[in-house]
Amino acid sequence: GTGNSIQVGDKIFDNFTYTLTGADMPAATAVNITPEIVTVGTATTYGFNVAGNFHDTDTTGPSDAVLRYDVHVVDPSLFLIANAYIDANPPPVVSGSGKIQVTENWTPLFGTARIRVYDLEPGGPTQLNDSITFDTPVPSLSVTKDILASITDGSGGTASVQSIDQLFSQTPVPEPASLGVLALGALTLLARRRR
């Protein structure tokens, strides 16, 4: 619900809002958030699974749901957010002609960066997961997740996604002593170049 927060590992997720358009997206009371800690490659990631019957039928026109929230590291002197991941699990399903698409972006904005999962039918591409490594790690982000579903062929089909994993990994903040060593090394290189 709006205003609720959860902590998962070193991440706090709060300021949740949920809005929908179209007749088919679930009400906020039918959307569930479950904390998750998952290993992606060699990185431990912290986040949650958002589950609901996000879908569209061809009788009502496109349906859209937008989930917004903030994510913060507990102690920004220790860690910063370095990566974001989304994963459609189980895979989205489109029966008929149409699409299901989940697009995520962030404030502060990283240019036009975004990540997506989608299924476009008939015969179109499908992408079940996506990730980004931020150019500059940050202590907090405001996240917008847009879930769009559309069936266009009048066949009685459905476009749906039931569950989306949302994960963030972190990078340690260098210790002040390490930063001093790096700065000293940079000054030494500059001095050598001037000679």
Distance between the termini: 63 Å
Structural class: mainly beta
Catalogue the unreliable spans. 177-184
Find the count of extended strands (DSSP E, 2+ residues): 13
Description:
The protein is mostly beta strands. The protein has one helix spanning 176-194, and strands at 6-8, 11-21, 32-40, 43-57, 63-73, 79-88, 93-95, 98-107, 115-121, 126-127, 129-138, 140-151, 158-172. The strands form 2 sheets. The chain has a 7-stranded antiparallel β-sheet with strand order 1-2-5-12-8-9-10, with no helix packed on it. Strands 3, 4, 6, 7, 11 and 13 form a 6-stranded antiparallel β-sheet that branches. A hairpin with a 7-residue loop joins strand 8 (98-107) and strand 9. The radius of gyration is 20 Å and the shape is elongated. The chain starts with 5 loop residues before the first strand and ends with a helix. Mean pLDDT is 87; it is low at 177-184.
Concise overview:
With 195 residues, the protein is mainly beta. It has one helix at residues 176-194, and strands spanning 6-8, 11-21, 32-40, 43-57, 63-73, 79-88, 93-95, 98-107, 115-121, 126-127, 129-138, 140-151, 158-172.
SSE order and pairing:
Elements: E1 6-8, E2 11-21, E3 32-40, E4 43-57, E5 63-73, E6 79-88, E7 93-95, E8 98-107, E9 115-121, E10 126-127, E11 129-138, E12 140-151, E13 158-172, H1 176-194
Antiparallel strand pairs: 1-2, 2-5, 3-4, 4-13, 5-12, 6-11, 6-13, 7-13, 8-9, 8-12, 9-10
